[in-house]
Amino acid sequence: MEISNKLKRLESIEVGIKNISYDNNSKILNEKTRLVRFINKNLGDYKEFIKDIEAIRFYSSVIYVGGDQNLKEKEKKFWEKGVLQLLSIIDILKEELKLDMDEKIYENSNEKLSNIVENKKVFIIHGHDDALKNEVKSFIYSIKLQPIILSEENNYGDTIIEKFERQSNEAMFAIALFTDDDQFNEEKRARQNVIFEYGYFIGKLGRKKTFYLKKGDITIPSDIQGIAHSSYDEDWKRQLFGTLKTSGFDINSEDYFN
User: Fold this and answer.
1) Which of 76, 124, 145, 224 shows its CA 20 to 30 Å from the CA of 203?
2) What does DSSP say about strands 187-189 and 182-184: parallel, antiparallel, or unpaired?
């Protein structure tokens, strides 16, 4: 299915959800199922959203007596929250499809660049896990690419943000290491500067030239679901290699895996 048609289908589901009146349980569940089926069939790269969709609830577990107006209002707010969550996921999917469409137009234009990237520099965004940072750094060297680690580069009198901007301009790919450095309430998550810098590179280089490596049981921002990534306990080196290769680096798997 063409990307434009996928967008139209998503918009159709979105309109259907917005037109459902409060307390129409069967209709909202039908639209929820319709969205899951559409993702399964047409949006294979975004199947991670299905778990989030299936977790959405439109009713609490509270049983109230018909005359209790406060509980009725709470139930209505619970319903509205579920609808907003569903619509929010649709918005994210629409934005991702629009990015895909823009990239496809660019690739087919006369301005298309060579698929082989001459620049071999890869920016590594990291937190406090020095062992993981060094392991990823060694892997990048082993496949004949050049890692950039901000703390190891010369300042040349620059402020931190000036140094970051200068070094980021030299990189053709970015890897973010999400490790459990911070904790918010009961959730463990990556440092805020890691998330910020990763978002910067997504905007600068595009989704297909970024990768994140997750280590430990940490919370990942929902906005980056669907972007190339791996968990540390998986075969992350092979997955990272494949993403680097797809992004345009002239690298050979025989240099490392054989």
Assistant:
1) 145
2) antiparallel
In a domain, 114, yes or no: no
Q: Which of 215, 243, 222 is nearest to 127 (CA)?
A: 215
Clarify whether residues 212 and 243 are in a common domain. Answer: yes
What does the pLDDT look like over 206-222, one tens digit per residue?
Answer: 989 999 999 988 888 87
Residue-range definition of the domain harbouring residue 211? 121-255
The vertex-218 CA angle with 216 and 222, nearest 5°, equals 135
Helical packing angle, 69-108 and 3-18, nearest 10°? 170
Q: Model's pTM, two decimal places?
A: 0.54
Residues forming beta bridges with residue 117, ordered by sequence position? 249
* Secondary element (H or E) of residue 216: none
Distance in angstroms (rounded) separating the CA atoms of residues 228 and 140: 17
SS3 call for 104: helix
> Do 86 and 128 fall within a single domain?
no
* Cα three-residue angle 110-115-117, rounded to 5 degrees: 125
